[in-house]
């Protein structure tokens, strides 16, 4: 065995002797193994975790409640309009009444909202829903037109929480039939029929841009 090899083996032994065991370094005491925790320690740890979770819930809950009842800002054309929390509550009540088919009461609330907030589209959309349920497709279309003109979000597929394009698209098929019936009946003047057709084509273009 040559001298260089002996030197290498001796160096390795020296290096091993320089290594510090976990017991010597005290690392084991600094980072105790969870498996070694007794029942009391585990209970304390669980209590701390639950306390932190409870604090997070308490901190986040008021913020979410405030968001749901706070006034809503949205853009109408070039202007940003604010819908008060009170108005949002009335719209929610009217929507529930329409769902429950309590149409007269819903119509009364919506008429008030339209007068107070002529810039908000939601009341017109709900009024359209009422007229659909009353089997008046042309009048429903006229209300939907006001709604989508005031708030284009109703025809924006990205706004999934308010998008109503598919519903309106189905309605327009009924409107075509209703206008044909107006023409055949001879009881509706030409000017009115022409206006209905203009709105129908306008809405078809709108729907084509949103629903394809």
Model description:
There is one protein chain. With 212 residues, the chain is mainly alpha-helical. It has 10 helices and 2 strands, in the order H-H-H-H-E-E-H-H-H-H-H-H. The protein has a two-stranded antiparallel sheet with strand order 1-2. Strand 1 and strand 2 form a beta hairpin. Helix 5 runs antiparallel to helix 6, helix 5 packs parallel to helix 7 and helix 9 packs antiparallel against helix 10. The chain starts with a helix and ends with a helix. 19% of the residues are buried. About 4% of the residues have low confidence.
User: What's the tally of helices?
Assistant: 10
- Helix amount: over 70%
Q: What would you call the structural class?
A: mainly alpha
Coarse morphology: elongated
**Which regions have little confidence, pLDDT < 50, spanning 5+ residues?**
62-69
Mean pLDDT level: 81
Main β sheet profile:
2 strands, antiparallel
Hey, roughly how much beta strand do the residues contain? under 5%
Give the radius of gyration: 35 Å
């Amino acid at each position: 065995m040559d001298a260089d090899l002996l030197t290498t083996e001796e160096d390795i032994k020296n290096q091993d002797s320089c290594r510090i065991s976990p017991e010597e370094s005290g690392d084991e005491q600094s980072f105790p193994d969870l498996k070694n925790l007794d029942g009391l320690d585990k209970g304390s740890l669980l209590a701390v975790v639950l306390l932190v979770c409870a604090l997070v819930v308490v901190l986040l809950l008021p913020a979410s409640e405030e968001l749901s009842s706070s006034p809503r800002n949205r853009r109408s054309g070039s202007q940003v309009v604010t819908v008060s929390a009170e108005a949002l509550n009335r719209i929610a009540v009217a929507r529930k009444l329409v769902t429950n088919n309590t149409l007269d009461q819903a119509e009364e609330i919506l008429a008030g909202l339209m007068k107070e907030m002529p810039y908000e589209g939601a009341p017109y959309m709900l009024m359209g829903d009422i007229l659909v349920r009353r089997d008046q497709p042309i009048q429903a279309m006229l209300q939907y037109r006001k709604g989508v003109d005031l708030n284009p979000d109703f025809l924006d597929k990205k706004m999934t929480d308010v998008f109503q394009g598919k519903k309106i698209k189905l309605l327009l098929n009924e409107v075509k039939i209703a206008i044909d019936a107006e023409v055949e009946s001879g009881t509706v003047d030409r000017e009115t029929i022409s206006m209905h057709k203009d709105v129908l084509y306008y809405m078809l273009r709108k729907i084509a841009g949103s629903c394809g």
